[in-house]
Amino acid sequence: MNVYLVRHGQSQSNVERRYCGNYDSNLTDIGRKQAETVRQKLQYINFDAVFCSDRTRAKETAQIILKDKNIKIAYDVRLNETNFGIFENKKYDEIKKLYPEESTQWERNWKNYAIPEGESVAMSFERVKNFMKRLESIQQPDSNVLVVTHGGILRLFYCYILNHNIELFWKFSAKNIGVSVIKYEYDNWYIDSIGI
Known about the structure:
The protein is α/β, with parallel strands linked by helices. The chain has seven helices and six strands. It has one domain (2-193): Phosphoglycerate mutase-like (Rossmann fold). It has helices at 12-15, 29-41, 56-65, 92-98, 100-108, 121-136, 151-161; strands at 2-7, 49-52, 73-75, 144-149, 179-185, 188-193.
């Protein structure tokens, strides 16, 4: 199975360098053009299934990529970005100023600290693991699957493949509209390419 992983196009929160997980930021005009570029890149691939985060920036990206294809998009909250809770749509300096104690705890324990009204990276990883098990249940070995999601979730996909090692989270880049390919063969995941 070939799984094409796409991070959504540039969003307004990306431009403003804000932490944007559950916050529903829209694509910019540049983000829409980026999605159109990916549409052209992937236009000759026949997708057997498409999964997408239910956040607007991911939905719009998927809809642009698939505008010439007649395929249903399955929106899946397991693919949503980590929920930043009280930090949502705030810049780093704002977070430090408004929530000094919480931001210090978050920095000291980035994996397991659940941001108030949000979640931890470890909690997001549980969602990703559950989703990956869903992909593993697809019984068509030559199928092509498209997944449109977020930067943090893409990093967790790689962590899952590399022995569920969440410590590797910061070892990967996940640029807007980057296309990565992972494959599942003989009960084994491997990374074919990252961010092409």
